[in-house]
């Protein structure tokens, strides 16, 4: 894991180098604490500089420092991420390229040179964001991995064109105008994040997952930049049409694919590794299989909340006992949440109100003291139908579509009353009633939907914020009619929720402490195998991730895996009222000009709703980010 930077400038060489040195500082603080470097190139009208801050994981010596230059061709690469199949690719490339290191960086550079960008992107398996200079063509290529595990942002700052992993570098540029995008603030308040391709800053654009962009070294400000999609999950859905009909055979094949993936992940590291273990199905499966694929003893890291109904360490403790691995349990309390707010916000290049970022960052800080790389279970829900929204639609989708709208409105109005939700949840659950009340509120929102598209939008979009019509539809993209409703939502999640919420949170929280997180379930081979499973292999008797559950139950049969999981959830409804008072929040909203986006009346109403903690947190975090960076809207 590293931080990448590219600057295309018409300023003088010395001034350009000075700017790049200044801009590298935020990347070196977090993403790349081990080494840094700058390479300079001159074109007809511009200077091009590549900068890099390195977190050393593979071939950790100086010879693999970046930017990496092929002294024969003059081609250069600055690269963030890991190529997990680099050893296989190296064997294929050795006839055409003479290697000088054992790094995946040089293999990626060789692949781009020998095969060309398009073929190389199709063959590599990994997470990445890179800038590549083809010196002969005087052309720069930037690209981002299939799911967007690694970020990449580009845009103009004055007369300079910048590409970076982290927008905090913009603050070090002398020509930065500090303008915020009002459209992006609207999106943030609605979704809790600013979705790609948008940025919180005017003039900046996020490269979307699975995109590649090429531009000349003599790029001008009025030149059109059009990223090209080299991969999309919908195409995988349509191509993997030969679905398995035998569950046992499919389960066996999927386990083989996951094991082969883990072999690549475990072998592509020259530093100690561990595993985030939440007690949930996905991280437990990764932990159980990974430990059996390596001779080293992996270490497990589990977070423990001190609030009733949020502690999931029990399953984690049972699993590590069975596997006989070192287990670290890291407590996280309200005071940890409160005390970490300022530092956490200061490291955000734009506001991200995913409240689990804070405990994950806390866990990452502890984990980095023991290992440099950590496996996670991210991707299991999106690929194997783990989210409640899939289960609910599978059960009640036809009912929602076919019942009269007037009847649905009556039931929704009934469930919208906090007292009613509280009574139902108390009667239904002895434990976990807070989370169940939140689910009832969501059910009230979705009762009036007419199809799966409006159902998904109702779940994702905050009703307190009014966005321009069609914004979310454009962000989700089109899906052909050949796929099922559940597949359609899984495609939406993989394009929208997974990269902008889950993976962005993981990247920022782990990189804040120079820790690399790897998600084996997002490997392209696992993704393609997931597409071969019919829906009944994923959802069975009202429970998702059936096939993963079956693999884990056979792998560790002594543990009862049928217990419900609440998810990696922060008790935000409880904590926000302790963190900020109603009048204090209203004052902050007015002070930073956010009353343009939400009225004081709507804000007070949300604050008094006991299940609007997430929205209150979204607003409060934005005020703290604006304050930390001295912005006003």
Describe the structure.
There is one protein chain. A 6-stranded antiparallel beta sheet has the order 2-3-1-9-8-10, covered by helices on one side. A 6-stranded antiparallel beta sheet has the order 4-5-6-7-11-12, with helices on one face. It contains 25 helices and 17 strands. The mean pLDDT is 88. The longest helix is centred in the C-terminal third of the chain and has 27 residues, at 485-511. By secondary structure, it is an alpha+beta fold.
* Separation, N- and C-terminal Cα atoms: 33 Å
Q: Order of strands in the sheet with the most strands?
A: 2-3-1-9-8-10
Helical residue percent band: 40-55%
What gross morphology would you assign? globular
Sheet/helix structural class: alpha+beta
Q: What is the typical, i.e. mean, pLDDT?
A: 88
Topology:
Layout lengths: L1 E8 L3 H17 L5 E8 L4 E8 L13 E2 L6 E8 L2 H8 L10 H12 L1 H7 L2 E9 L4 E6 L8 E5 L2 E5 L17 H10 L12 E3 L4 E6 L11 E2 L3 H7 L7 H21 L5 E4 L4 H12 L6 E7 L7 H11 L2 E7 L1 H13 L10 H12 L4 E3 L4 H5 L3 H15 L2 H11 L2 H11 L4 H14 L5 H9 L10 H6 L8 H27 L4 E3 L5 H7 L15 H10 L16 H8 L2 H10 L8 H9 L4 H16 L5
Parallel strand pairs: 13-14, 13-16, 14-15, 16-17
Antiparallel strand pairs: 1-3, 1-9, 2-3, 4-5, 5-6, 6-7, 7-11, 8-9, 8-10, 11-12
Concise synopsis of the structure shown:
The protein is α+β, with helices and mostly antiparallel strands. It has 25 helices and 17 strands.
Keywords:
alpha+beta; 6-stranded antiparallel beta sheet; single chain; 45% helix; 633 residues
């Amino acid at each position: 894991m590293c931080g990448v930077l590219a600057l295309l400038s018409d300023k003088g060489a010395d001034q350009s180098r000075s700017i790049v040195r200044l801009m590298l500082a935020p990347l070196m603080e977090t993403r790349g604490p081990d080494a840094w470097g700058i390479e300079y190139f001159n074109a007809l009208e511009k200077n091009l500089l590549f900068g890099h801050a390195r977190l050393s994981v593979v071939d950790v010596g100086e010879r693999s420092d970046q930017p990496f230059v092929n002294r024969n061709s003059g081609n250069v690469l600055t690269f963030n991420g890991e190529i997990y199949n680099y050893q296989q690719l190296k064997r294929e490339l050795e006839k055409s390229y003479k290697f000088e290191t054992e790094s995946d960086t040089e293999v990626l550079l060789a692949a781009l040179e020998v095969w060309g960008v398009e073929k190389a992107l199709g063959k590599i398996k990994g997470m990445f964001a890179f800038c590549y200079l083809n010196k002969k063509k005087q052309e720069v290529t930037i690209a981002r991995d299939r799911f967007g595990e690694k970020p990449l942002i580009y845009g103009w700052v004055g007369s300079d064109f910048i590409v970076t992993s982290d927008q905090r570098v913009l603050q070090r540029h002398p020509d930065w105008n500090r303008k915020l995008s009002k459209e992006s603030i609207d999106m943030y308040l609605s979704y809790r994040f600013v979705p790609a391709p948008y940025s919180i800053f005017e003039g900046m654009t996020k490269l979307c997952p699975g995109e590649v962009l090429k531009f000349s070294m003599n790029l001008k400000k009025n030149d059109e930049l059009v990223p090209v999609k080299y991969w999309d999950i919908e195409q995988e859905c349509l191509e993997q049409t030969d679905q398995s009909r035998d569950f046992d055979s499919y389960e066996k094949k999927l386990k083989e694919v996951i094991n082969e993936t883990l072999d690549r992940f475990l072998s592509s590291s020259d530093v100690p590794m561990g595993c985030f273990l939440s007690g949930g199905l996905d991280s437990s499966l990764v932990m159980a299989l990974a430990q059996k694929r390596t001779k080293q003893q992996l270490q497990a890291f589990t977070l423990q909340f001190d609030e009733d109904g949020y502690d999931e360490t029990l399953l984690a403790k049972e699993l590590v006992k069975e596997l006989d691995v070192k287990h670290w349990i890291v407590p996280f309390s309200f005071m940890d949440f409160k005390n970490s707010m300022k530092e956490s916000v200061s490291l955000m290049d734009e506001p991200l109100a995913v409240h689990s970022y804070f405990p994950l960052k806390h866990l990452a800080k502890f984990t980095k003291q023991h290992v440099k790389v950590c496996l996670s279970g991210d991707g299991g829900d999106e690929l194997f139908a783990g989210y409640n929204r899939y289960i609910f639609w599978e059960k009640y989708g036809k009912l929602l579509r076919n019942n009269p709208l007037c009847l649905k409105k009556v039931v929704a109005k009934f469930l919208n009353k906090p007292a009613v939700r509280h009574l139902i949840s108390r009667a239904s659950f002895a434990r976990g009633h807070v989370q169940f009340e939140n689910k009832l509120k969501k059910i009230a929102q979705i009762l009036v939907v007419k199809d799966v598209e409006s159902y998904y939008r109702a779940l994702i979009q905050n009703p307190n914020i009014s966005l321009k019509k069609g914004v979310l539809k454009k962000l989700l993209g089109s899906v052909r009619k050949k796929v099922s409703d559940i597949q359609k939502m899984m495609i939406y999640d993989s394009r929208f929720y997974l990269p902008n919420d889950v993976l962005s949170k993981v990247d920022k929280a782990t990189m804040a402490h120079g820790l690399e997180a790897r998600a084996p379930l997002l490997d392209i081979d696992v993704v393609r195998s997931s597409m071969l499973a019919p829906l009944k292999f994923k959802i069975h008797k009202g429970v998702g991730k059936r096939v993963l559950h079956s693999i884990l139950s056979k792998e560790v049969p002594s543990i009862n895996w049928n217990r419900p999981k609440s998810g990696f959830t922060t008790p935000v409804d409880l904590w926000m009222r302790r963190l900020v008072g109603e009048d204090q929040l209203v004052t902050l909203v007015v002070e930073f000009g956010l009353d343009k986006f939400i009225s004081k009346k709507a804000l007070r109403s949300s604050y008094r709703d006991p299940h609007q903690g997430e929205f209150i947190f979204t607003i409060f975090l934005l005020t703290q980010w604006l304050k930390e960076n001295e912005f006003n809207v």
